[in-house]
Amino acid sequence: DYLAVFEVLPLPYRGAFSPFSFAALLVSMGIILAARFVRAQRQTETVSRILSGRVDEKTRLLDRALGDLELNLILARKIQRNLLPPNHAWPGFRLATLYVPMQQIGGDFYDIFPMRHGRSVGFLMADSSGHGVAAAFVSTMAKMALDGALDEPKSPGELFSEMNDRLQGRTCGNFVTATLMEVDLNTRRAVVVSAGHAPILQQHANGVPEEIPARGKVLGVFPNLKFVETEIRVEPGMRFFLYTDGIVELMDPRTHDLFGEERFFGLVRGNAGVPVGALLEQIRRSMDSFVGGAEY
Question: Which of 12, 55, 62, 145 has the largest CB neighbor count within 10 A?
Fold first, then answer.
């Protein structure tokens, strides 16, 4: 607002404002400005109280929503953990696993299951694209596709083909990488297939590790996929490492260096005589040290 205060002088007066008129003008302006200031101050205080109340309410609602989200994530993590195999005891094998999702829930999962009516054992490692909730949903779908495909005896290649068919059009642009190794101890034969996943690392009794050359396209994107099966001979004392890219792509937040395959393979090679459980603990300690104790 703009305020103009003036006084019309009587015609007989030919000079400037009288002292009395000028004083009255100043007093009038002071009273008006003071009244406006008081009113503006009250309005400001009222608005401040309203905004403060709204902020407090929004904060309470946000805290409640975050609390609900945290509870849901904890429940989702428990559900996802229940998807992992409860039994790691299989005759003829010494097994050890290390499962460290980057967030409370993630897209990595593994499974161990009988194949061909129990004549052989399947070892699966899988990873869905992305991170967090979306990746967890896709990995759950992949687990359901696997369980559905196991209703009848199949070779590893046939199993992946059916999993891919079951995932078609349901992953919203995401995909799943996976590798599967079927081991028959009676014939000392293993069959390996890969769907765009990190190669399985095999370690011979002499301690030398090498990758099993199996290649294939990711699951859930391309229709009517066929997978090439790679057959290898299994000997007593051999070790096999199935892993996801979370190990080799682990990044040091200080230098942005990657953990890398060379470091991982070196740990496997340098601990050839160490029990598998202790070896995984050593790998975990090395990962923790690599990132300087930061979370990952």
Answer: 145
